[in-house]
Amino acid sequence: MRPRLVALLCASSFLVSSCGVLSQGGGGRQTVTVWMMKGSASQDFLDRFTEDFERTHGDLRLDIRIQEWTGIGPKVQTALTDRAGDGPDVIEVGNTQVAQYAKGGRLTNLTLESMRDWDMEDWLPGLAEPGLDNSSQYGIPWYAANRVVIYRKDLFEQAGVTRPPRTRTEWLAAGEKLDSGGNQGIYLAGQDWYTLSGFIWDEGGDLAEETNGGWKGALDSEPALRGMEFYRQLQSLGRGPVDADEEHPPQAEVFAEGKVAQIVAVPGLAQTIVEKNPALKDKLGFFPVPGKTAARPGTVFTGGSDLVVPRNTTDREGAVAVVAALTGAKWDTELARVMNYVPNKPKLASAVAGEEGVAAMAAGAAHGRATPNTPDWATVEADNPIKDYMTKVLSGGDPSKEARQASQRITVQLG
Question: Quick one: angle between helices 168-178 and 222-235, nearest 10?
């Protein structure tokens, strides 16, 4: 995914780097080097995990090295082509980055372990699917984060909205009641394409589709157009700018001004809101993005991290042991509790049930998706025609015409 989706969706990560060298540690142990991204795990978690892993794997020693997200792409690409045996054995990567790293056969195929030992059928789809390439599993789901609705409990009560909405219809009705008295029913920036993606997926559409071995834009399909129409209706219940995304201005700052009833964001943004306006402490609540029916929450874009093993590792067995331990139930749920993440399997969500925001996030993650699984998707995000399309529709443009033009641009970018 993009540079940590606003430091939220990606919740960051610690990177343990430099592995493969199989240097000898104390007692003749072989060293497994792990790259983890900065912020993904606390130092206390890493210390406890390392102690437990080395105690239960007497022949292995861990060397965890923390990496910065900025500039990590080229650094990983260099490590994957290293022939000196000095690179990392395990790398944490953004879930939507797996495809670009798997290109050219540079990652270890972990399909056998995934099927035999790791219950891959139970993984969150938004983490598992981006890790899959040509029916082979390269990225192993570690943790997830996604958007929920952050709302003002007091404004809901004042407007007579007695409970969080569970369907799109209820959401629009609540927004209409809340959008009065100088308050915005919801603050939704016009170019928040991650949120739009969920609405499109709920309708059965997609941003792009693979056809005959190639990719083409799909914003002009009927399901995608229905998703955009719902976005238009919801966005109209506030005063979000139609020509900017959720970071321009930062929606946390707008919410903190005290005149917004709802935003769509990762729950961690609530802390920023309260820091800017302490008067809102204890007034914020969370609920999953509503779906088309009350039977299930809406589909959301799932960010987070997968673990991969470079094909050039000199210790495949040790690397697999690390991946198995980090993504297994014991340490995956511990990481979720410590860092307020969503575990990699819905059945483990009870580990975060006591935290309202994370519980809402976990409910949505069970139906999460990721961006189209092609290594060229980064090209689309770099010069994003989806944002332009949204602005044009919200400014009164013809949805079908604008969607067709945006889809054509996406097709060229993915060609």
Answer: 20
From residue 293, give the alpha-carbon distance in Å to each of 143, 169, 289, 332: 27, 9, 11, 31
Query: How buried is residue 316: exposed, middle or buried, by Cβ count under 10 Å (0-12/13-18/19+)?
Result: middle
Alpha helices by DSSP H, listed for 185-328, are: 193-202, 222-235, 251-256, 269-276, 316-327
Q: Identify how many contiguous H helices and E strands the chain contains and give both numbers.
A: 18, 12
* Residue 63 and residue 32 in contact, taking contact as beta carbons nearer than 8 Å: yes
Burial (CB < 10 A; 0-12, 13-18, 19+), residue 163, is exposed
Distance separating alpha carbons of residues 47 and 331, to the nearest angstrom = 12
DSSP states of 75-127 as a string?
Answer: HHHHHHT--SS-S-SEEEEEGGGHHHHHTTS-B---HHHHHHTS-GGGS-HHH
Q: 12, 341 in Cβ contact below 8 A?
A: no
pLDDT tens-place values along the chain, 415 residues long: 434 443 334 333 333 333 333 334 445 789 999 999 999 999 999 999 999 999 999 999 999 999 999 999 999 999 999 988 789 999 999 999 999 999 999 999 999 999 999 999 999 999 999 999 989 999 999 999 999 999 999 999 999 999 999 999 999 999 999 999 999 999 999 999 999 999 999 999 999 999 988 999 999 999 999 999 999 999 999 999 999 999 999 999 999 999 999 999 999 999 999 999 999 999 999 999 999 999 999 999 999 999 999 999 999 999 999 999 999 999 999 999 999 999 999 999 999 999 999 999 999 999 999 999 999 999 999 999 999 999 999 999 999 999 999 999 999 999 9
Cβ atoms of 387 and 410 closer than 8 Å:
no
Percent helix, strand, coil in the chain, to 5, is: 45, 15, 40
